[in-house]
Each structure stands twice: as structure tokens, then as C-alpha cells.
């Protein structure tokens, strides 16, 4: 998912409204909303993927650029499924709370990210069953 921060100068809106001759406040707001939707659809629409956006800017006498529209892509460090590292700790906490070793449900705890052998998993499963026996006995006591 791409994220954008769009900076739009007030002069951009004023120029659109002036060129189109819109003076009614309600119609001005509708036009501004329409243009915002156009920009969002341009950036995020499937059929517009790979198209180019042209914008103009003014250079002031002291040499500073005055942009009407600036679109900045927000860079994220976790793209392409890298969130798994952030989720691992939460998964381990949930499994610990439920008294199940996280390796039994596919999560590998720790930074080493090495998986246990079949024997280790069998022992972990036996431990999990043993820890759950008092709860099972309590629940089935009515039967």
C-alpha cells in the first residue's frame, strides 16, 4: 500500500475557482472536494498506475520555489510483508497467556528464528496437554 502526503497551496484552489468563475461558497467547497477526489483517484486508481502528474511552480525573486501542488510518497520501512517481525512478539505473548508454546502454532520465538525438531515439538505438545489437564478435569466434572 502506498501512502502519500499531498501539499496544496491556497493559491491553487483560488486559481481553479477564479478560472471557473465559482463564487458560491457551497459550490466552491464542492469543487475543492471534487479536485481532491481527482488527485486521490489519479494516485491510487488502478487504471492510472504509472501515469505522470505535471504541476507548475513559481520561483520568487529571492530564488525560493513556490509550489502549488507537492506530492510526497511516505516511505515505510515495513513493506512487502515485513510486519511479521512486529507481530511475532504479540503472538508469543498471546500463546504464553493461553499456556501454549508458540512453536506449536507455527510461530518461532526468539531472535534466532530456528525451528525445533519433531521431538522437541512432540515434547512441547505433551507439556501443553499436561498443563491443560486440570482445566479439562474441572470442565468435565459435571459429566
Would you write up a description of this structure?
The protein is α+β, with helices and mostly antiparallel strands and 143 residues long. The protein is built from four helices and four strands. The strands form two sheets. It has a two-stranded antiparallel sheet. Strands 2-3 form a two-stranded antiparallel sheet.
Short description:
The protein is of the alpha+beta class.
Given the helix and strand composition, which structural class is it?
alpha+beta
Distance between the termini: 52 Å
| Adjacency order of strands in the biggest sheet | 1-4
Report the mean per-residue pLDDT as an integer. 77
The overall strand count is 4
Q: Beta fraction of the residues?
A: 5-15%
Helix fraction bin: 40-55%
Shape: elongated
Give the low-pLDDT segments. none
Order of helices and strands: EHHEEEHH
Cα-based radius of gyration, to the nearest Å: 29 Å
- What summary fits the major beta sheet? 2 strands, antiparallel
Number of helices: 4
Q: What distinguishing features does this structure have?
A:
single chain, 143 residues, alpha+beta, two-stranded antiparallel ribbon, 4 helices, 4 strands, 13% strand
Write the layout of secondary structure elements.
Elements: E1 3-8, H1 10-20, H2 25-44, E2 57-59, E3 65-67, E4 69-74, H3 84-97, H4 118-140
Antiparallel strand pairs: 1-4, 2-3
Amino acid at each position: 500500500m502506498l501512502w502519500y502526503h499531498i501539499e496544496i497551496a491556497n493559491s491553487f484552489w483560488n486559481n481553479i475557482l477564479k478560472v471557473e468563475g465559482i463564487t458560491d461558497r457551497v459550490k466552491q467547497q464542492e469543487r475543492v472536494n471534487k479536485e481532491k477526489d481527482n488527485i486521490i483517484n489519479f494516485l491510487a486508481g488502478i487504471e492510472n498506475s504509472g501515469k505522470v502528474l505535471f504541476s507548475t511552480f513559481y520561483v520568487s525573486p529571492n530564488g525560493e520555489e513556490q509550489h502549488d501542488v507537492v506530492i510526497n510518497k511516505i516511505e515505510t520501512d515495513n513493506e512487502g510483508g515485513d510486519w511479521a517481525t512486529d507481530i511475532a512478539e504479540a503472538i508469543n505473548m498471546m500463546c504464553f497467556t493461553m499456556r501454549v508454546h508458540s512453536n506449536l502454532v507455527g510461530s518461532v520465538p526468539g531472535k534466532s528464528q530456528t525451528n525445533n525438531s519433531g521431538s522437541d515439538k512432540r515434547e512441547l505438545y505433551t507439556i501443553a496437554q499436561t498443563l491443560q489437564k486440570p482445566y479439562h478435569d474441572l470442565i468435565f466434572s459435571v459429566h
